Amino acid sequence: MISIKQIPVLNDNYIWLINSSEKYTAVVDPAVPEPVISELKKNKWKLTHILNTHHHSDHTGANLELKRITNCKIIGPMADYERIPGIDIFLRDEDEFEFGTEIVKVIDVPGHTKGHIAFYFPNSGSLFCGDTLFALGCGRVFEGTMEQMWNSLIKLSLLPKQTRVYCAHEYTLSNGNFALTIEPNNKKLKFRMKNIIEKRNKGISTIPSTIEEEIDTNPFLRPDSLEIQRNLSLVGSPLLDIFTKTRQLKDSFRG
Ligand code: ZN
Ligand code: FE
Asked: Which residues, listed in sequence order, are joined to residue 241 by a DSSP beta bridge?
């Protein structure tokens, strides 16, 4: 069993704290140190691991400070080891490591950056995917190719449907507003958005979601939707082309 705490920081980042079997505590993508340190104190947890999904500073900014204070080990993507501050252990696709009572599986998900990994905890059905899959969205393709990002999203969509998706940003509302522009008649999407609007009006987080919800409503996992294909004038086109067009439209979407 693991227990997971959410730490909202900066404008819209989430840092995740994961505790297993009392002795092991990991932090995923620590942008800033102070809120992590106080949450550790509050729970009387000792930090043993930093898990970095990718090198961006809003995911690694607290690496060195937390390592200095706690002497924890820093784990990150092999493909970007030079850009992860203080990295100790670099992992690649399908690597596994023990974390307390859990096994953690590494899933390589490049696209947003050259090196980007997701951490999957199969026993508890939890996925920490950084800036790859967002609730109702996906990360921008900065360093990789559209094809890489599309393949990364396919991998994540094949995880068990009840897997909880812990992404690194609260972008859900604007992602959903975009989704509605290309799939306005998706009933599950409309229902989900009603719920999201209510939550955000009360300042409540929309994360985690589940793989099932994303498959049903996230336009980046739905290039096979006829409604999306029609609205993009790409009926019957290769799914990669439809994904690419969707990503490009979202890049210029303001809302
Ligand atoms: Zn990023
Ligand atoms: Fe980010």
From this structure: none
Mind giving me the DSSP string for 179-239? HHHH-TT-HHHHHHHHHHHHHHHTT-----EEHHHHHHH-GGG-TT-HHHHHHTT-TT--H
Q: How far is the CA of 58 from the centre of ligand 1 (A)?
A: 7
Domains and CATH numbers, the chain: 2-167 (3.60.15.10), 172-251 (no CATH)
Write the burial class of residue 47 (CB in 10 Å: 0-12 exposed, 13-18 middle, 19+ buried): buried
Question: Exactly one of 54, 55, 80, 116 is catalytic; which is it?
Answer: 54
Question: What pLDDT, in 10s, does the model give residues 66-105?
Answer: 999 999 999 999 999 999 999 999 999 999 999 999 999 9
Q: Which pLDDT band, with edges at 50, 70 and 90, does 21 fall under? A: confident
List pLDDT tens digits, range 139-157.
999 999 999 999 999 999 9
The pTM assigned to this predicted structure is 0.98
pLDDT in tens, 192-201: 999 999 999 9
Of all ligands present, the nearest one to the C-alpha of 113 is 1
Kindly report the three-state secondary structure assignment for every residue of 61-111.
CCHHHHHHHHCCEEEEEHHHHHHCCCCCEEECCCCEEEECCEEEEEEECCC
CA–centroid distance, 168 to ligand 1, in Å, is: 8
